[in-house]
Amino acid sequence: GCPRRLLLVSNSTMHGGGYLGHCQQHIQSFLGEKVKRVLFVPYALHDRDAYARTAREKFESLGYGLDSIHESCDPVEAVRKSEAIFIGGGNTFRLLKALYDNSLIQEIRKRVLEDGIPYMGSSAGTNVATISINTTNDMPIVYPPSLQALGLVPFNINPHYMDPDVKSTHMGETREERIRQYHEEPNTPPVLGLREGAMLLVEGDKATLQGVTGARLFLRGKKPTEHEPGTDFSFLLTDSN
């Protein structure tokens, strides 16, 4: 089986809480005691120094050292030496372009899928863990060479998934409609809509929904289905959906 270990979080901050506060126990459980230092990838935000300070403060409070990849003179070597990788949120297009620009796509894939080091993503960092960034909510402010992402799982995720407000008079597209439009294209993979407060834990060939909110699953040609925390999503890890 695949040795991958992933914690894919929908959002970095919950209303009324601090950075990663809503999932800090999940992080500690996920990283455990073997990991001493985490390699942070702040490419999704413009001010990488400030972003790294925020992440470092949080991870140090949880007992882990943190090195930011943007401070390394050799990002590829930093990935090769890393014990665990955390890619933070921000703009998904900016993030993916930087991963390509720094030749990190294959390196991160190898470390996670072959070497089995833990990978954690939040928001944009969760988007790039999937097949592609086709289902991100972000504006294409820069142009990555491809929309293909790390492919650590064989499906797509829509972080910050929002249900339609039944009281709203807004006539624009709902998130569900946008995902349905994506599935109108041939050969499009499943899309897991992760609400804020939800996260997906992947251990080898097992995937489990965690957190305090549910998720909505979209399969091409089928009606969306609703799922509660604790749902076993392992079937999404097989390529035959």
Automatic annotation (TrEMBL):
Compartments (UniProt record): Cytoplasm
Look up and give the organism this protein is from.
Penelope pileata
Which keywords does the record carry? Cytoplasm, Dipeptidase, Hydrolase, Protease, Serine protease
Work out whether the entry's keyword set contains Hydrolase: yes
Query: Is Cytoplasm included in the keywords of this UniProt record?
Result: yes
Entry's EC annotation: 3.4.13.21
Give the enzyme's main class according to its UniProt record, as a single word: hydrolase
Q: What does this protein do?
A: Hydrolyzes dipeptides containing N-terminal aspartate residues.
Q: What family name appears in the similarity comment?
A: Belongs to the peptidase S51 family.
Q: What is this protein called?
A: dipeptidase E
Per the annotation, which location comes first and is thus the protein's main one? cytoplasm
Q: Which GO terms describe its cellular component?
A: cytoplasm
Annotated GO MF terms: dipeptidase activity; serine-type peptidase activity
User: PANTHER family from the entry?
Assistant: ALPHA-ASPARTYL DIPEPTIDASE (PTHR20842:SF0), PROTEASE S51 ALPHA-ASPARTYL DIPEPTIDASE (PTHR20842)
What catalytic reaction does the record list? Dipeptidase E catalyzes the hydrolysis of dipeptides Asp-|-Xaa. It does not act on peptides with N-terminal Glu, Asn or Gln, nor does it cleave isoaspartyl peptides
